[in-house]
Amino acid sequence: MPNKPFSKNLLDLDLEQEAQKITSQIRAILSKQLKRRGLVVALSGGIDSSTCLALAVKAIGPERVFGLLMPERHSSDDTLDLSTAVADTFHVDRAHEDISGILEALGFYNRYDEAVRQAIPQYDHGWKSKIVIPNATETKGFNLFSIVAQSPDGTIVKERLPLKAYLEIVAATNFKQRTRKMLEYYHADRLNYAVTGTPNRLEYDQGFFVKLGDGAADIKPIAHLYKTQVYKLAAHLGVPQAICHRAPTTDTYSMPQGQDEFYFSLPYDKMDLCLYGKNNGYTPDEVAPTVDLTPDQVQRVYDDIDTKRTTTRYLHLPAQLIEPVPEIKN
Q1: How far apart are CA 215 and CA 318, in angstroms?
Q2: Spans of all domains in the chain
Q3: What pLDDT is attached to residue 259?
């Protein structure tokens, strides 16, 4: 049984102590395990990558941190401005790599449009779209994905996604994360730097990343922190206010899409508390009043957490060997 009553205060941190702990570990891992000179951080204009860059600079100085800005055709209009603001705030060298041309060469945009047309036949150039799921508190079974599309004249269309179309859309959008990671490792190799992964605990625990895409990294400085804690740490470290006040987005689809629409199905502050409650042995009855849900709804969130852990476990696994190679130690 937990020792303390459940409340939002359970996620409170001594922010400076946490920052010192993380930066000390970054220095140790970089010099003793990875043996690299510095860190590459891909900047999306979001809270997680911005916090990771701030921590990297605090750990090893701006002259040993390299920022990458990698928007593409579907990125939010403010992605480049926000990521540039972070690089400017922390005085790091950076490169702007627009990945639209690479994605075009891979056939991403055509593959994506063709997949969407399986559900919305009239979908064409000039349309925008995103995938959405129901709120976890409202469903009792499998999450059913829908595609929401907007025509050039502003008309909104929403249709249930067949499994084939859903899989093809996700497979196509995964090109984005894998293309960015390819460029991150290019710059890391030329600089003799390590690549920084930016998932928070909610994303890391629940498999909200692409294998060999944004899931690939040499160090993940904030994977132990709940997103609520990341927001507070970002403000403490001096991340620009426009980012500290920005709601989490996927910045993957051409229509604006919150993470709670696509994957977590609850706003991050409630998901954090539900995940903390489950991780630390609090019952749905204890958690429910704090997150303004019923115990039954919290139980559905707990069940969804278990489902995501089970179905995304393979994302965390290294390549599986038929038998061990004893000379190589992980």
Answers
A1: 12
A2: 8-105+167-312, 106-166
A3: 66
